[in-house]
Amino acid sequence: DVKVTQSSRYLVKRTGEKVFLECVQDMDHENMFWYRQDPGLGLRLIYFSYDVKMKEKGDIPEGYSVSREKKERFSLILESASTNQTSMYLCASSSPTGEEAFFGQGTRLTVV
Amino acid sequence: AQSVTQLGSHVSVSEGALVLLRCNYSSSVPPYLFWYVQYPNQGLQLLLKYTTGATLVKGINGFEAEFKKSETSFHLTKPSAHMSDAAEYFCAVTHIDSSYKLIFGSGTRLLVRP
């Protein structure tokens, strides 16, 4: 059973904190993604990685950074959390040809 | 640039009625198209996909979708709605020119009335 695992289902952080969201996949996929999901806006791509140490900005990268030191792990970093980053965050992975993406269960982050 | 438009943020049908969820895309090159479903408090699950070949694709739970290049559409249908179909549905597009990044529509919440 293929898996994308996100380290936390729920997180509450304070404004200004540095926040790490972790994602691990066991499918040896090259591509990994971080999305943000907000009501009425669908999923918006924050960052995309197509290989170890390689990353590409998505549609809404401001306020976020990422790290991919190992193929199976893709981390999303909020350098200084703000209340407008309260959202559901979804991680996904896919093969190089993008024929199917597998998603984690999501992390609901609340910044207070 | 590629984009996806889903018409109707909410669709309500009676149990047993036809389900039709609309998706239009823009892409300058042949796309791969997907429908994903999300149940409450869960991640996304692939319903079906079109990559190449037959334009009518069948997915899980009795859903199907037809790729119509001339209309740039990929509408999702199911002949008879079931209560368990109530969920949010997302259409997505990707292609080689975008390094296979998945771009999603804004989603359609399907409500099924008894």
The biggest beta sheet of chain B is recorded as: 6 strands, mixed
Pair with the biggest interface:
A-B, 27 and 25 residues
- What integer is the average pLDDT of chain A? 93
* SSE order of chain A: EEEEEEEEEEE
Radius of gyration of chain B: 14 Å
SSE layout:
The complex is a heterodimer of chains A (112) and B (114).
Chain A: E1 4-6, E2 10-13, E3 19-25, E4 31-38, E5 42-51, E6 54-57, E7 64-70, E8 73-78, E9 87-94, E10 101-103, E11 107-111
Parallel strand pairs in A: 2-11
Antiparallel strand pairs in A: 1-3, 3-8, 4-5, 4-9, 5-6, 7-8, 9-10, 9-11
Chain B: E1 3-7, E2 10-14, E3 19-26, E4 32-38, E5 44-50, E6 56-58, E7 64-68, E8 73-78, E9 87-94, E10 103-104, E11 108-113
Parallel strand pairs in B: 2-11
Antiparallel strand pairs in B: 1-3, 3-8, 4-5, 4-9, 6-7, 7-8, 9-10, 9-11
Question: Please, could you describe this protein's structure?
Answer:
The complex is a heterodimer of chains A (about 110) and B (about 110). Chain A has about 110 residues and is mainly β. Helix content of chain A is about 0%, strand content about 60%. Chain A contains no helices and eleven strands. Chain A has strands at about 5, 10-15, 20-25, 30-40, 40-50, 55, 65-70, 75-80, 85-95, 100-105, 105-110. In chain B, about 0% of the residues lie in helices and about 55% in strands. In chain B, strands 2, 4, 5, 9, 10 and 11 form a six-stranded mixed β-sheet that branches. Chain B has a five-stranded antiparallel β-sheet with strand order 1-3-8-7-6, with no helix packed on it. Chain B is globular and about 45 Å long. Classes of the chains: A mainly beta (about 110), B mainly beta (about 110). Chains A and B meet through strand 4, strand 5 and strand 9 of A and strand 4, strand 5 and strand 10 of B.
